Amino acid sequence: MQELHSIDDWNRIFEQSRTEPVLVIKHSTTCPISAAGYKEFQSFETAIPKYCVIVQTSKDVSQKIAEDTGVKHESPQAMFIKNGEAIWDASHYDIQQASLKTAVNAN
């Protein structure tokens, strides 16, 4: 899983989503709920590229993701982005391998 550090990083991933789907997680390193969601996301096995934004160090990236996708920021938050659209998102304890699998298989 690659960490996104800049808006340029995000812009590349957002463009990538137009040709292949991507999974993105916004993670707070100080929140135990976020740690649980991050662990579920990280251990989810898929061929779909996965990316992470640490909200404490990349607030501008987190905000740009919210602007581009229209999904209000939460942390933790996972998104399945395809064709430049967030077609699925989950936050907090809803980030589970089962929900990620359902989202991927449905799209």
Notes on the structure:
It is a single chain. The relative contact order is 0.23. A hairpin with a 2-residue loop joins strand 4 and strand 5. The chain has helices at residues 7-16, 32-43, 59-69, 97-106, and strands spanning 2-3, 22-27, 50-54, 77-82, 85-91. The protein contains four helices and five strands. It is of the alpha/beta class and 107 residues long. It has a five-stranded mixed sheet with strand order 1-3-2-4-5, sandwiched between helices. It is 40% helix and 24% strand.
Question: Could you tell me the strand content as a percent range?
Answer: 15-25%
Strand order, main sheet: write it out: 1-3-2-4-5
Poorly predicted runs of 5 or more residues: none
Q: Determine the mean pLDDT.
A: 95
Instruction: Give the termini distance in whole angstroms.
Output: 21 Å
Q: Using only CA atoms, what is the Rg?
A: 12 Å
**General form:** globular
- Largest beta sheet, briefly? 5 strands, mixed
- Provide the structure class: alpha/beta
Number of strands: 5
- Count of DSSP H/I helices: 4
Order of helices and strands: EHEHEHEEH
Helical proportion, percent range: 40-55%
